[in-house]
Amino acid sequence: MTKLLRSLTLVLCLLLAWSRGAAETAPLIANINARHTVSLDGQWQAIVDPYDVGALDYRAQPLKNNNAFFKNYKPQSESELVEYDFDTSGQLQVPGDWNTQRDSLLFYEGSVWYKRTFDYAQSPKNRLFVHFGACNYFAAVYLNGEELGEHEGGFTPFDFEITDRVRAHDNFLVLRVNNARGKDQVPTVNTDWWNYGGITRPVTLVEVPDTFVQDYFIQVEKGTTNQIKGWLQLNGRQPQQNVTIRIPEAGVSRTFQTDSRGRAEFSFRADLTLWSPENPKLYNVEIAAETDQATDRIGFRSIEVRGTDILLNGKPIFLRGISLHEEAPMRASRAWSDDDARTLLGWAKELGCNFVRLAHYPHNEAMLRMADQMGVLVWEEVPVYWTIQWENPGTLHNAENQLKEMIARDHNRAALIIYSVANETPVSDARNRFLRQLIQDAHSADSTRLVSAALQANGVSEGGHITIHLNDPIASDLDVLGNNEYIGWYVHRPEEADSIDWASEYGKPLIMSEFGGDALFGNHGDALARWTEEYQENLYQHQLVMLKRIPFLRGMTPWVLKDFRSPRRTLPRMEDYFNRKGLVSDHGEKKKAFFVLQKFYRELQSAPPR
Ligand code: GCB
Is 424 a pocket residue for ligand 1 (Cβ < 6 Å)? Predict the structure, then answer.
C-alpha cells in the first residue's frame, strides 16, 4: 500500500513538475551587461495581495477575465466594477525587497503584483528579451495582458523572449511575485535568514541580433595551467557560423565553426598570467560570431585537490575565509549592487580573507564580478538547507534547476572555485540520493570546479576525551569536505574546544564552513556571559587553538561576517530578530572577535602553509 501511495505521489509530483515547466523561460543569456540593454529598474506600481485575489476567483479558480490583475484593466464606464488599480496603488523600488520598503511588509509572506510601463524602439532585425536577476521566490510574468511564463527559485536569473510581443509604445509588464514558504520548496519552510520578497535584483531589456552568442565557457582545462578548454553556444536561425575567440592582450585569436545546433567546443594553448588573490588578473575576451559579438572580463586559474591539499595554480593554498549572507551593509535589506558587494568584500579583505562563502543561496552577479576584481575566492551554494523534502521528485527537479541556473550564470568567474550543494542536511538514504544527484549535476555542468557541502559531524566521547569523526556517507562523493560546528555556543563550553580532536578517513581537505557565537556590539562583560563581545572573542580564541591542530584543515569560513535579520531570533534587546554571530554589527561596527580572526589571518598570510 505504502509503495502504491509512493508511486502515485511520484506520478503526481512529476505531473506537477511538468505542468510548472509548461510556461518555459528562455535559455539564459550570459553576461547581459555587455549587450545592448535598457534598464527597467526604478519605481514600479505595486499591489499587495495576501489572498491572491488578482489570480484566483472566490472558488479558487484561475481568473481569466479582466479581474485578473495582469490585464491591468480600467473600467470603461462609471458603472463598471473593477476592484483593482495599479496606478493609484503604492509604489515599490526595483530592485529591492519589499520587506524593508514599508513597515507593514517587514514580515509579509504572500503575493505582491508589480507593474511598469515602457516604450521600446526595437530594430526589426533583432530579438528582445526581458531578463530578471532574481525574484523571491516565485514569479509569474505577463506582458501586455498575456502570460510570458513562470519561474521558481528566489536567487537565480531568468529571461523571456518578447520579440513578437513588444510594441513601440505603452507596453505594460506585470509580475506576481510570491514569497510564501512551502514545504516542498528549495529552501523549505525552515531557514535562519529573512524571507525577503520581491523583485530583488535588476530587470533589464536585452536586445540581441537574430542569431546571437547566448553562452560560452572559457576556462583553464583541469590539470593544466596553459590550456584553455570550453564551448560556446549560438542561439538563432543561423546556427552554423565561424566564431573567433580573441584575447588581445595575450595574443590569442582562434576561429571555430559552430555545428547545426549552434555549438562549438574548443581547446587551445595560451600563455596567460594566472589569476590569484594576490594578482587578480582579468583579460578582455571577445567572442565574435558572424552575426553577433560578446565581450567579457575573464580570469584564468586552475583549482584542484591533491590528497588533503587544495591547489590554486598548482600551489597549496589555505582558504582564509568568512561566511556571509546577501544582506546589505548598514541597511539590513537584500544586497544587490556593486557598492554593496564592494563594502561586504572590503570588510572580508580587511579581515585578511582570500576566500568567502556566499551562504546559503546564490548571491547576486555583482558579488561574483567584484570578487573577480578584488581577488577573493568564492564558495557558492544552493539553498538545499536543513530539512528538504528528499523524497519529492519535484523538489529535486527544482534544486537541480537552481544549481543549473547558478552555474550557467557564474561559470566564467575565476574567483569561483567551489559549488556547495547543501548545508547541514540530516543523513538518510533519500537525502544521500538527492545530494548525489546534485553533486553529479555540478560535476557534469562544470568539471573544472570543486564540489562541496557543509556537513555536520558528531563527536564521540571516550574516557572524557572527545573526537569528532567526519563520517557523513556523502563525504566520499565530494572533492572538499565542509563542516559546520558550534562548539562553545550550542554545544560544550568554549574552552573545551582546546582538547577536541578531529578525525577523517577520507584523505580529503576540510573547510570548517561554520563556527561562531552571538555577541551584541557594545555589550561588554565576562568572557562567560552570553551575548557579550568578550564571550565571542573567547570562543574564537579557543576555536583557533582547536583548528590549528586539525592536520587536514585547508580553510575556514566562520559564521558570519555581519549580523543579519532572522525571524528565528526573537530575544528582546539581544537579538531583536537579528542573528548576532556577525564579526561586524549590522551598522558596520567591528566586534572584538573580528580582531582575533584578523590577527590569525595576518599570521597565516605571513607564514602560509608549506
Ligand atoms: C547553522 C546554519 C546557519 C545558522 C547558524 C546559526 O548551522 O548553517 O544558517 O544561521 O547555524 O547561527 O545557528
Answer: yes
